[in-house]
Amino acid sequence: MPQQESIAALAPVGPYNRKDWPHWIDADGDCQNTRQEMLIASSRVPVKFKDTRHCTVVSGEWFGVYTGKTFTKASDVDVDHIVPLAHAHRHGADKWTRDRRRTFANDFENLVVVYDAVNQSKSDQAPHEWLPPRKDYWCEYGRRWIHIKEKYRLWFSSRERETL
Known about the structure:
Blueprint: H1 34-42, E1 48-49, E2 57-63, E3 70-73, E4 77-81, H2 85-90, H3 98-105, E5 111-115, H4 116-122, H5 138-151, H6 158-163
Antiparallel strand pairs: 1-2, 2-3, 4-5
């Protein structure tokens, strides 16, 4: 069960800056960053690359868990952070080191390939503010949200806890 709000969690939080969260890194040095690795790992068919270097995915087949629709162009999908970076920042991660932020931002357990327009509508909202349009995914989304917040010891607001 999500942990209780703490006095420390209610302390003032410094400003969020996406540049403080190194994401889409090439952890294994193969020229494919986290986004590309996610596209490759979650495609239902072998992906096609932009060129022979095999660094950038251009097509594949991805099932959008938020919408229930299938996408074939990499440009139509985003790799979403289940628990958004800005949300994490406001719920305890503002005190993290750059290395810890990098780990969080590139953690496959916190990532999912989704339709880009739906990801943009989500922005940095919590489950009490936004849920995927596909109701069949709500329980899994909630389970993943809780898992990530507990894994990284981020605090839950009372409204967030109620919704979950």
